[in-house]
Structure formats: structure tokens, C-alpha cells
Amino acid sequence: MTDVLPEAEPGDEAPPLPLAGYTVAVTAARRREELGVLLARRGARVVYAPAIRIVPLADDAELVAATRAVLAQPVDLVVATTGVGFRGWLEAADAWDLPLVDHLRGARVLARGPKARGAIRGGGLVDAWSPPSESSAEVLEHLLAGAEGPLAGRRIAVQLHGDPLPDFVDALREAGAEVLPVPVYRWALPEDVAPVRRLVGTIAARAVDAVTFTSAPAAASLLAVADELGQRAELVAALTDGVLPFAVGPVTAGPLTAAGVASVQPERSRLGALAREVVARLPERDPVLRVGDHDVQVRGYAVLVDGRPVELAPDPMAVLRALAVRPGTVLSRAELVTVLPGGGDGHAVEMAVTRLRAALGAPLVETVVERGYRLEI
């Protein structure tokens, strides 16, 4: 069904929302609604497909054992990687009547970012240092550079954030430290994997315009599901050309980078900054064409004509997209048949062009007798 937004009265025109006409997928498990609202308010269609779920370990023997190992002897350094994780650790220890906070008062507590710093202070401890980049890599660099003193023989507790951080932990052990990993929660596949499986196929078919990642496990999980479905090559190809991947930061982007996918990242690892990056980068990939006396920008499922969003059915959109890729060039009916989502023949192309012209409401598509169609640029 083709939907044309009603025209405003003269003088009442409002600019279109910046993401009007685009579809953005959200893979986050935690705070997915918050990110989705930020994108929807800017005009995007949002597809939710959580790639992971968070499994808390508050009653898990593994966390009890890790906490008792920390309490066994004085700790020299503590690394808090996430606010929710560090806070959960302190609360779980308190519920078990384990004197964790008192035990950590004599340690230097490092925070990966401001949320971890807030959890440290909220727990009655003092944060000693945190990196400007909010990355585990910079925390590791800080420690290996000797900023907290020699590491050999020192006990370091590292609160994990779902990822076992093998490179981080191994590097500290190689420097001679006794590392005590504390798994406060872990990541697992969602209980309902159908949405993320559908998302793999949707991305591979380039039926979304962008996909957002807010954690490295979510990116790794999406790739793992694609492996399971035998669609990894198609997924990576689409994320490389056609679907823009956005990661909240370099740590989150790690699995994508390892798979050969370059992602767009905001300067600050925040949901708001991520949403703003989508707003800035998604529309700029689609050129604004001057067709006759009109400005035309072909987006995901809609086209902006002089700033007016016009939603198009799949066949008319496919024809317009093909013409916009080669503006001014005549494309034959045979060439246009190949781009129709459901296939067809020359008559199907003619019907798609008729519907396209009716939806656009402007003479943008020109018929070149016995040759085909083109955009009148």
C-alpha cells in the first residue's frame, strides 16, 4: 500500500524528522526501549531484536566462590567495569553477610567509566582513577604502564561485565599479578531466538537501513546466530555495503571489527550520542538529487520530495531506487524487471511506474519511447 502524507497549508510546513523513511534495528537487551524511543522520536521505524539476555549470578555458586577468593587475602587493586555489575556484586555480598565493602576499603578501586564510578561511591568506597575513553583497553594500558605501581605479586580483582575479558586478564597475569575475575552476570542467547534469527535474514536482505549495537556480546551473538543459520557471509556483506552498523564504542565494535566489518561510533559511549550519530550519518549516505524543479532523496522505505516524506510500496520503491542510482540514464523495462522484489515482466514494471508517478505527485519519471524510463535531472 502506498501512503502519501497529507500536504500542509502554506506557511505551516514543518521539516521532516531526520530519520523519516529509515528502519533501524536495535539489538540491545538492556535499555532497548530507551534507545528505541530516541530513534523513533527522530522519525525512524524501529525493529527490536534483542541478541542477548543478561543472566544475573546473584544466587550463583560461581559468584560466591569468586567473592570468597577476594576475601581470602587483602586486595591491592579492584577494577569496576560497569555500574550495574559492581553495584550488584556489593549488594549480593551484603545479602550473604560477606564483609566485601570493608575488605575493599584498603584497595585502590579503578572505574572504567562514570557509571562504575557512581556505583563505587554509592557503595561507600572511593574511586581512585578512571580513563577519559571509558574503555577497558585504557585501564589495562594504565596498569601495565606502572601508574599504580609494579603489578608483580599484587592481587587484582576484576569485575567482569558478561565478557570474560581474556586479553585483559591474561595481560595482567603475564605481568605477574594474581588476578581474581568476578563474574557478576553473564550473557546468553535470548530465550526467544526467533526475533534475532529474523533480523539476520532481514539484514542479509538489506531490508533495514542500520543496526545498532550497545555491547560486544550482542554483536558476537548476532554473528554466532548467522553462523548457525549459514548466513554469516551474507550478513557481513550487508553490514559492509548497504546496512550501516553503529556501535556505541570501540569495545562494543570488537566482534564486528574482527569479522571485517567497519562500524560507525560516536565520540562518547552514550545512548544519546549513539542516536545522534545515527541521525547524522544515515541520511548523508543518500544523495539529494535535483530532478526537474524538485529535490528528491531516496531513503529506505520512503522518498523525500521537496522535504515531503512519501512512503512507497516495494515495487515502486525498487524502480525509483534503480533510477536514482543512475540519474538521467535510461533503464529499459528488462533492466527494471530484475530489481522488482517479486520479479515479473514488462507489464509489472509499467504498473510500478504508474503507481510511482501517482505517489510522487510530480513529473519526475520520464518515459523514453521504445527505450525505457529515467529520472529527469
Main features:
disordered N terminus; 3 domains; single chain; 40% helix; Arc Repressor Mutant, subunit A; 377 residues; alpha/beta; Rossmann fold; 5-stranded antiparallel beta sheet; 15 helices; 6-stranded mixed beta sheet
Explain this structure.
This protein has helices at 32-40, 61-71, 83-95, 100-104, 114-122, 136-144, 166-174, 194-204, 216-229, 232-240, 250-258, 271-281, 314-325, 333-337, 346-360, and strands at residues 3-4, 23-26, 45-48, 53-56, 77-80, 108-111, 127-129, 155-162, 178-188, 210-213, 244-247, 288-291, 294-298, 302-305, 308-311, 365-368, 372-375. The protein has 377 residues and is an alpha/beta fold. A six-stranded mixed sheet has the order 4-9-8-5-6-7. A five-stranded antiparallel sheet has the order 1-15-14-13-12, covered by helices on one side. Strand 12 (288-291) and strand 13 form a beta hairpin. Mean pLDDT is 90; it is low at 1-12.
CATH topology grouping of the largest domain: Rossmann fold
The assigned CATH architecture of the largest domain is: 3-Layer(aba) Sandwich
Please state the CA-atom Rg, rounded to the nearest Å: 26 Å
Structural class comes to: alpha/beta
Estimated share of beta-strand residues:
15-25%
Distance between the termini: 27 Å
What's the helical proportion of residues? 40-55%
Number of helices: 15
Shape: elongated
Total domain units: 3
* Spans of at least 5 consecutive residues with low confidence: 1-12
Strand order of the largest sheet: 4-9-8-5-6-7
| CATH class descriptor of the largest domain | Alpha Beta
